Amino acid sequence: MAHSAWRPNSPSATREGKAQKRDRCCTLLGHFRSIFVPKADSRIAITVSSGAHQFLLEWWAALTGRSQANLASALLEKALTDALRNGDIPHVAVSAYDKFIDAMGVHLAEEFQEAIDSVKEGMPL
């Protein structure tokens, strides 16, 4: 059984090259995430600083129909947004965050372009 010769500029070779590049990018991003970026659903334990604050949180959560954990998560997110806006977060942490977001943007743009190219070529996704 004869095998066709592999051509570096053929559509299949180009797709293989893109796939290898994407795999390398995914591997690097995965490694970066495993070292530096906690999962979005990371859980942390919080000790409320005073009984008065605990009382306030309990009632605030109850009156708004949400759990204390959900309320605490929303408050933490707001505090981080405010700290970022006010320049309270160390520059190195912000710079690392920006680089990670940029890398994710490049990765997603490449995946999107590959999906568009696949559709144009009539290939299933």
The stretches of 5 or more residues where confidence is low (pLDDT under 50) are 1-8
Strand percent estimate: under 5%
Task: Provide mean pLDDT, rounded.
Answer: 78
Sketch the topology as an H/E string, one letter per element: HHHH
End-to-end separation:
30 Å
How many strand elements? Answer: 0
Biggest beta sheet summary: none
* Tally of separate helices: 4
How would you explain this protein's 3D organization?
Helix 1 packs antiparallel against helix 4 (91-120) and helix 2 crosses helix 3. It contains four helices and no strands. Mean pLDDT is 78; it is low at 1-8. The protein is elongated, with a radius of gyration of 23 Å. The chain is an all-alpha fold and 125 residues long.
